[in-house]
Amino acid sequence: MLKEDIMKSRRLILPLIIAALVSAVGWAPSPAYAYPVTPFSASLSGGLTEGGITWYNRSVGLQGYVSDHTPGSTTVMFDFYQGENLDMALYLSTQTRTASGYGENRTDFNFTQEGPVGGITWVVISLCTAKCQIVLTYKRR
Predict the structure, then answer these.
(1) Structural contact between residues 136 and 51, judged by C-beta atoms closer than 8 angstroms
(2) Which end of the chain has fewer CB atoms < 10 Å from its terminal CB, N or C?
(3) What's the burial of 125, exposed, middle or buried (CB within 10 Å: 0-12/13-18/19+)?
(4) Phi, psi of 29 (to 5 degrees)
(5) C-alpha span between 79 and 63 (Å, rounded)
């Protein structure tokens, strides 16, 4: 009976020793880095866009939707810039997404805009129904 108790003790203690060694050495997986996300929401003359901007090292990720509640269409336009001040920033590119048709029409988007060395520092969001208007401007923090 004594021999069986010793064997049971070994089976219980050995996993505890291994777990203590693994945590002391730091072999446990580290948590993933969470990139900053800036939420956005804007509406204009029957058009609406909502979503988030994820600020990666060089690029930005945009996810959300544009919806149209007019007889025509609504386009969301994203302009990307690099520079400390927007009025002196270097224009990089533009991406658009459109929802069209009368009623509750919605177009989802989820894309990444690649940036140059130094990264994208500004995202300017415009909504276009009958005309285009800048509705939001965000800078990388």
Answers:
(1) no
(2) N
(3) buried
(4) -65, 140
(5) 15
Burial (CB count <10 Å: 0-12, 13-18, 19+), residue 32: exposed
Is the Cβ–Cβ distance between 79 and 95 less than 8 Å? no
Q: How many CB atoms lie within 10 A of CB 139?
A: 16
Alpha-carbon distance of 66 to 6, in angstroms, equals 68
Q: Which two tokens stand for residue 35?
A: 């990139």
Distance, CA of 9 to CA of 32 (rounded, Å): 37
pLDDT in tens, 47-105: 999 999 999 999 999 999 999 988 889 999 999 999 999 999 999 999 999 998 776 78
Tokens representing 120?
A: 């994208």
Give the integer Cα–Cα distance in Å for 62 and 55.
9
Q: CB–CB of 106/47 below 8 Å?
A: no
Q: Measured between alpha carbons, how far is 61 from 64 in angstroms, rounded to an integer?
A: 10
Give the span between the Cα atoms of 29 and 95, in whole angstroms.
Answer: 37
Task: Dig out the tokens for 135 from the structure.
Answer: 């509705």
Cβ burial of 127 (10 Å; 0-12, 13-18, 19+) is buried
Q: Does the reported pTM lie above 0.70? A: yes
